[in-house]
Amino acid sequence: MNKAHLFCMYIAFPPFTKRILDIIGDNIPNYFTKQDIVNLVPHIAEYKDDNYVISLVEQELAIRAVEFIGCQGSAWTDQVVKARTQIRKKSVMINSLPGVPRDVIRIN
Question: Rounded to whole angstroms, how far apart are CA atoms 12 and 3?
Answer without folding.
Answer: 21
